[in-house]
Amino acid sequence: MGRVANKVALITGGASGLGLASARRLAEEGASVIIADINQEQGVAAASGIAGARFELLDVSREAGWIALVDKVVADYGRLDVLLNSAGIVRLASIEETTEEMWRLVNAVGTDGTFFGCKHALRVMKVAGSGSIINMCSTASIQGAPQVFSYAASKSAIRGMTKSIAVLSAQNGYGVRCNSIHPGNMRTPMLEEVAEIVRENDPAAAQAMENIWVGEPVDVANMVLFLASDESSAVNGAALVVDNTTTITEGVVPK
Fold first, then answer.
1. Where in the sequence numbering do the catalytic residues fall?
2. Which of 12, 32, 42, 252 is most solvent-facing, going by the fewest CB within 10 Å?
3. 110 located within any domain
4. Any residues with CB less than 8 A from the CB of 188 and at least 6 apart, and which?
């Protein structure tokens, strides 16, 4: 029997990157997976390649969509056991270069989307008396990340949300766990997008990026699997780092 056999997992940003890797890993271990994404074409293709998965169109920045989807999942499956908030976008800009439009876009998807997801997953999970909410954060919420200012701010907000939800659940006996995962650089389309911008604007910095450690999406997906499973029943409110010492090393971790 799989490690998350018979569990129902909803994954935002599941059409690509860490969300997709996590969807595959949870499905491999027996979960029924709902991939939610704003990119319908990519999401349908992703779900079609995963046994037991289905796609749902979702704009995470709109609460009404969250209410409808969470209620639909519970109606169709009888419960929601796992929520992975993995939807997020990044804009390469320091605070000096960050526009109001950039700020609002990054935070609408990352901060607002995670807030709405946590709120409505908690609403149904506490009725069942169990559940695991997993918020995808970043090492940008742990160490200074001046060139992704709005992204770092969003991930820091999510880290705080996670701890607040975990304590609320523990104090009130809801039985719902809420944890955050903080990946370092991972080989995803988001990282490639950033790297391409750096290559166009700062070749020397781009060359330096080629020589640092980069993890694989499955490294993060395995952490998602652990938090989704009953193996992590005492893990609540944790900020789990997947970065091969990047946040504690002086200088950089080499390739």
1. 151
2. 252
3. yes
4. 16, 17, 18, 217
